[in-house]
Specification:
Elements: E1 5-8, E2 13-17, E3 23-25, H1 30-41, E4 47-48, H2 49-56, E5 60-62, H3 66-77, E6 87-90, E7 94-97, H4 120-129, H5 142-164, E8 178-181, E9 185-186, H6 191-209, E10 215-217, H7 219-222, H8 232-239, E11 243-252, E12 255-264, E13 270-279, H9 283-313, H10 320-330, H11 337-353, H12 358-372, H13 378-394, H14 399-411, H15 415-428, H16 438-449, H17 453-466, H18 473-486, H19 490-503, H20 510-523, H21 527-540, H22 557-573, E14 609-611, H23 613-622, E15 626-629, E16 637-638, E17 643-644, H24 657-670, E18 678-681, H25 689-699, E19 705-708, H26 711-717, E20 723-724, E21 726-727
Parallel strand pairs: 8-10, 8-11, 9-11, 14-19, 15-17, 15-18, 17-21, 18-19
Antiparallel strand pairs: 1-2, 2-3, 4-7, 5-10, 6-7, 11-12, 12-13, 16-20
Helix pairs in contact: 1-3, 6-9, 9-10, 10-11, 11-12, 12-13, 12-14, 13-14, 14-15, 14-16, 15-16, 16-17, 17-18, 18-19, 18-20, 19-20, 20-21, 20-22
Length: about 725
């Protein structure tokens, strides 16, 4: 017994005890009960994940789903608790049961040669250890015991009915992504092909076990069915799996053909099938390619099938893994902003249900970063970083977690760390990183930013080979086009960029694809095509200026010069050089922070004074305000004396974490003088960063805040002096 619960596997499972000792059966899966039974057998002892999986799932190759069972237990056992969970997680090590556990003796007379206890202490001890349905039960517990016994009988009857009706195979419902890869058949009865069929079976078993959340039966168990005509439903019952994968190998001329099909062990229905052909002259490479393609295709199909089943069977009460499956299924289609928001909502719900889910943490972090597009709220970006730290502590070798961590690092402009982290992730397990090729993509992009665009192209080509069916393939080709453009290989750039548009022409991110095309067309003398591409880019994003292009990484003079060449090509295509400092879009003033990077800005903001370039020059000469630069679109040069607070112009709210951090930093910079004049400088009159910063400063109580609406771009257009920008942490 422990904290109001009683676990009795022989009498029906887990029971909740009320104040009078009444026992109510608790509905919980058999896998979760197995895990609980093991934890209770060794209370207070740290059990590794491997030890738990070997004890609960012997003979299976399992991945990641232990956390699902732990989450199911916590939802029941921690209900109503206000402090820590009764199941403690040791990050990267395992779990321990920390609540007090009392073992109960079974009914029956005292052991031979030992008299019944008669002392007060012995009587008290016996009372504590005797079960509510055992010997010497007080009268007030007798009705409770009868009710508990009745509940147990009902549970037993239901279990018997489930067994006889075929609800439960081999005594347990099979896990959701459980699969057995049956030995592939050699249709030609050729000893060479028979050996190849076995090799493909082995490789595919290994590869599928790497797919996140799958439960793959070990090779030895699956091979007991080799050359035996066995009903897949029987195999499902005997192995405890929901699916089997069958396949055959044959040679047709110079082609090796592999047919494969996914079959339900519950109904015997064929759920999916495909055919894979490879040139037999490249046998080793062909085998590897076939296995890789099958792994990707089968994994995607399993997720889609299980996601649809989850919606069908548990439309209103999904668990964390249901929600994760539904989000994964959505991620298999080309991304759109709305789809990303829906995925984020699913992962956020999964994280609430299972706060220890590293996958949910990593995906929430990824989607917060992706939706921000480098410009979301400071609070969201910091939360994403914290979630990734937690996920890496839980699963330091997880390809998904490493992939998303690398993406976040690149988004916040830390390319040196990206290169180190990405290369480390690939070294840890290059096979697993084949699925999460974002690591290669981000590594490639940072290679361009440090002046090695030729390495970018090679890495992107490798990622394309490793994951040829990625739904984000169009982004890969867009990036390859940019790398080729940086190298001056304009015809190659055009080919890559056109391929990106052909794959997915509707994504808003193609504002950059069209703009890069315009630059490449202009440099190759294709003026009309350049103008058409530029017009398409402006329809998607009308706030672009050539001066707004900047090198994200300033450590490489090679990349800096490539960006200057890119700017010259855009001007040649006819792109707008800069925004109008005095543009009035007729937008009324308000006090709201904006999370979008640019748009139609108002000319005023409550609590601050809007100034133009000439007025800022006068202020600098007369009252010498403290100049705060948001560091947007920055070459790390700014108005003389400016202090750079990176990301201080992001959106959010005036009561968020960023506001408190800004308060502390401004107290340091101003010496708590709320009358100190401060000029807030962003990029230009069509960006919200300078305005956001000015509103934050006014909300902190500073009485002399100036918003330089024209921003650093207007200062550059006026050809006024700039100095090195002093960046500070905040």
């Amino acid at each position: 017994m422990f904290e109001g619960f009683c676990l009795d596997r022989r009498r029906g499972g887990l029971f909740r005890l009320d104040a009078t000792g009444g026992a109510t059966p608790v509905a919980i899966g058999s896998r979760a009960l197995d895990v609980l039974d093991l934890l209770l057998s060794r209370p207070g002892e740290l059990l590794s994940k491997q030890a738990i999986m070997q004890a609960v799932w012997p003979g299976m190759v399992v991945e990641e789903n232990l956390s699902v069972q732990i989450a199911a237990l916590r939802r029941v056992l921690d209900d109503g608790r206000t402090d820590h969970s009764c199941i403690q997680t040791a990050a990267g090590r395992g779990y321990r049961f920390v609540a007090p556990v009392t073992r109960k003796q079974r009914d029956g007379p005292p052991p031979a040669n030992q008299p019944a206890p008669t002392s007060p202490d012995a009587t008290r001890l016996q009372s504590e250890e005797a079960p509510p349905y055992g010997r010497r039960v007080p009268p007030r517990y007798r009705m409770t015991a009868a009710l508990a016994a009745a509940c147990i009988l009902v549970v037993g009857a239901v279990m018997a009915l489930a067994w006889s009706g075929g609800w439960i195979g081999a005594g347990k419902a099979p896990p959701r992504l459980s699969i057995a890869v049956l030995p592939f058949q050699d249709v030609d009865d050729d000893p060479t092909n028979d050996h190849l069929a076995d090799a493909i079976t082995d490789d595919l078993t290994t590869e599928l076990s790497r797919f996140r959340g799958t439960w793959v039966i070990a090779r030895e168990s699956a091979y007991t069915y080799k050359d035996k005509a066995t009903d897949v439903r029987q195999i499902g019952r005997e192995l405890g799996v929901r699916y089997v994968l069958e396949g055959s190998v044959r040679q047709i001329g110079a082609t090796l053909r592999v047919n494969v099909q996914l079959v339900s062990t519950e109904t015997g229905a064929h759920l999916w099938s495909d055919r894979f052909d490879e040139d037999i002259g490249q046998l080793a490479a062909g085998q590897q390619q076939i296995v890789a393609r099958m792994h990707d295709t089968i994994g995607l199909s399993l997720v889609q099938i299980e996601s649809a089943r989850s919606l069908r069977e548990r439309p209103t009460n999904p668990d964390a893994f249901d929600l994760i499956l539904r989000a994964r299924s959505m991620n298999q289609t080309p991304p759109t902003p709305q789809r990303k928001k829906e995925m984020l909502a699913l992962y956020e719900r999964a994280l609430l249900l299972d706060p220890q889910s590293a996958e949910a943490m990593a995906m929430v972090a990824y989607l917060l970063t992706e939706l921000a597009d480098g410009w979301g709220s400071s609070e969201d970006m910091r939360r994403a970083g914290r979630l990734l730290e937690q996920a890496r502590a839980l699963e330091p070798r997880s390809p998904l977690v490493l992939n998303n961590a690398v993406y976040w690092l690149r988004t916040v402009g830390r390319c040196a760390e990206v290169i180190e982290a990405a290369e480390q992730a690939i070294r840890i397990d290059p096979n697993q990183m084949r699925t999460y090729t974002g690591v290669y993509n981000e590594l490639a992009l940072c290679k361009t930013r440090v002046g090695h665009a030729e390495e970018d192209l090679a890495l992107q080509a490798l990622a394309d080979q490793l994951n040829p069916r990625s739904p984000s393939k169009f982004i890969r080709y867009r990036r390859m086009g940019f790398a080729a453009l940086m190298l001056g290989r304009d015809q190659d750039a055009i080919a890559f960029l056109q391929r990106s548009l052909a794959l997915h022409a509707e994504d808003p991110i193609h504002r950059w694809t069209y703009r890069n095309l315009a630059a490449a067309y202009a440099r190759t003398g294709q003026t009309d095509e350049a103008r058409r591409s530029l017009a398409a880019a402006d329809r998607l994003w009308p706030y672009f200026t050539v001066r707004g292009v900047f090198p994200e990484e300033l450590s490489s003079p090679v990349y800096a010069q490539q960006i200057r060449n890119y700017q010259a090509a855009l001007r040649l295509a006819g792109a707008r050089d800069h925004a109008d400092e005095d543009a009035d879009f007729g937008v009324p003033a308000d006090g709201l922070l904006r999370s979008e990077i640019a748009g139609r800005t108002p000319t005023e903001a409550p609590g601050v004074m809007t100034i133009r370039t000439a007025e800022l020059v006068a202020l600098l000469s007369n009252i010498r305000p403290l100049v705060i630069d948001t560091v947007s679109n920055s070459w790390r040069r700014s108005i003389p004396g400016a202090v750079g607070l990176r990301f201080s112009g992001l959106g959010g709210s005036l009561a968020d974490e960023a506001q408190e951090r800004l308060r502390q930093k401004m107290t340091e910079l101003t010496g708590s003088d709320l009358n100190r004049p401060i000029a807030a400088v962003g990029w230009n009159s069509e960006c919200f960063d300078g305005r956001n910063l000015a509103l934050r400063l006014a909300a902190l109580g500073y009485t002399r805040v100036y918003w330089y609406r024209g921003g650093r771009e207007a200062w550059e257009v006026a050809e006024l002096p700039e100095t090195e920008l002093a960046l500070q942490e905040w």
